[in-house]
Design a protein that fits this description.
The chain has about 200 residues and is of the alpha/beta class. About 25% of the residues lie in helices and about 20% in strands. The chain has a seven-stranded mixed sheet, covered by helices on one side. Helix 1 crosses helix 4. The N and C termini lie far apart (about 45 Å). It comes from Collimonas pratensis.
Length: about 200
């Protein structure tokens, strides 16, 4: 398997295009892959009532099975066909919960009570941030939650593309209020010391 220190050569260099991600899945180069369900999400599920949840840019999608088995009505999407295939390969009976779709145009059958953020915002170039936030706001009704992991870093290189906390708050403030946040204790190397679990509630 290729490692971040010795990555294979890639033809696609634009992370806003699905080919970028498909090529990396096909070459088994996934340094962002946690290999499991993060502790902060498990704790959130344990203290929350099940709801309809959307996972944009789900990648391998380990969380899909965890949420479904906990009674959450989960739908996961990714615009990369290789990512969808990888997720379906590991999810077994929950594989039908993963769809190939573009987050910016996908219309869920019902408005989600939760959007789970796991390395989606930091996967796309910073120029798409305002579009992502607008889509989060459009999909979530008042009182619904945007919860997950937010990557704070000053390096302009990516992905992952880190964001300044002040910029994140500026982008979210009009439509969301911060309800809770916690340290992350089980980060993988690429995110270690630079991410926080945050819960943002959609304003009325």
């Amino acid at each position: 398997m290729a490692t971040p220190e010795s990555p294979p050569k890639f033809a696609s260099r634009d992370p806003s295009h699905p080919d970028f991600w498909s090529e990396r899945f096909e070459k088994d180069f996934m340094p962002w892959d946690t290999g499991g369900v993060p502790l902060a999400l498990q704790q959130y599920v344990q203290r929350s009532q099940p709801a309809s949840v959307l996972i944009p840019g789900c990648g391998t999608g380990y969380e899909v099975a965890y949420l479904a088995e906990a009674g959450w009505d989960v739908t996961a999407i990714d615009f990369s066909d290789a990512a969808v295939s990888a997720a379906r390969a590991v999810l077994g009976k929950w594989s039908e919960r993963v769809l190939q779709a573009d987050f910016f145009s996908y219309e869920p059958p019902q408005r989600p009570g939760l959007i789970y953020e796991r390395a989606f915002l930091c996967a796309l170039p910073p120029a798409r941030r305002a579009d992502i936030v607008s889509r989060w706001a459009a999909l979530l009704p008042a009182g619904a939650v945007l919860a997950g992991f937010f990557f704070f870093d000053e390096s302009p290189k990516g992905p992952p593309f880190g964001i300044d906390r002040a910029e994140l708050e500026r982008l979210l403030h009009a439509d969301f209020e911060l309800a809770d946040e916690q340290d992350v204790t089980d980060s993988i190397a690429v995110f270690a010391g630079k991410e926080r679990w945050m819960e943002w509630r959609r304003r009325a």
